[in-house]
Amino acid sequence: MVTGKGGTGKTTVAAALALALAGKGRRTLLVEVEGRHGIAQLFESGELPYEERKIAVAPGGGEVFGMAIDPELALLDYLEMFYKLGRAGRALKKLGAIDFATTVAPGLRDVLLTGKACEAVRRRTSKGGTRVYDAVVMDAPPTGRITRFLNVNDEVAGLARFGPIHNQAQAVMRVLKSAETAVHLVTLLEEMPVQETVDGVAELRAAGLPVGSVLVNMVRPVLLDEETVRTAAAGHRTAVAKALSQAGLGGARRGGLAERLVDPLLEQAREHAERVALEKRERAELEALGLPTYELELLGDGVDVGGIYRLAHALRDQGVR
């Protein structure tokens, strides 16, 4: 499960993680549940259907499949699975009852989404055979509602105390709370995303849900060493003017090119120093969580298919397997 505050790039990170996990001939399934079609856009493929479709080949021959889980179609699957409704279920869809149920019934939509993903996790090639997928990655809802989203089956199991729905809800929770599941949190080195990550980890732990790692996205390079950052923060005009002069940008005399460049450069350097100091504080907040942390660089040219492969390579280099 990959979650994160809006704007942190969780869909991009989920796609890169699925690609990284598909190395060495393995198969991964990348699932989206919010109907935004972000995965299709990243891999420049057509809109994902409610069925598994190959969308990428990983280095080493692994495969990434994608699927968009539609709650209405998932409910039809449930009606067929538990109540053998068949054509009656399709008739309900035509009458609008399925859409009504998934929109109005409390928590039902999330039950269907998590249940379908867990079915893919448990599926095997044959009875007693190997699992169809080595890993299933979900581009999950944002951090603010991830705990509620994952815990809804516990609530359903409590409401329906026996029967197929109760049993299914319990089976889903066994998968979600197992050692095979992990909720990874995507963040930026900024105050609000980091605070939401810290709060999200606390909520997940309180609910007994397995927290995986922190994925710091869009990390910008540090352009100045620590000593230069301190000099820039202090605003030493003379030292900067002298350095510019030594670099061949004219003398440090008043009105010269070096002199005219000092103030704009000092302003940029001060902004950089402030950002470096902020990121250092935010890293300390994340380190205090005691979770594995991975960093992904900011892709200056935007995210395309090549960028996803680049990020997946970075994750593998940092030990994600």
Description:
- The chain has 321 residues and is of the alpha/beta class.
- The protein has 2 domains: 239 residues, P-loop containing nucleotide triphosphate hydrolases (Rossmann fold), CATH 3.40.50; 66 residues.
- The protein has a 4-stranded parallel β-sheet, with helices on both faces. A 4-stranded mixed β-sheet has the order 3-4-2-5, sandwiched between helices.
- Strand 3 and strand 4 form a beta hairpin.
- Helix 3 packs across helix 6.
- The longest helix is centred in the last third of the chain and has 31 residues.
- It is elongated.
- 36% of the residues are buried.
- The mean pLDDT is 83.
Short synopsis of the structure:
The chain has helices at 10-21, 38-42, 71-83, 87-94, 97-104, 108-122, 143-159, 164-176, 191-206, 226-234, 237-246, 257-287, 305-317, and strands spanning 2-4, 27-32, 53-57, 63-68, 135-139, 183-187, 211-219, 293-297.
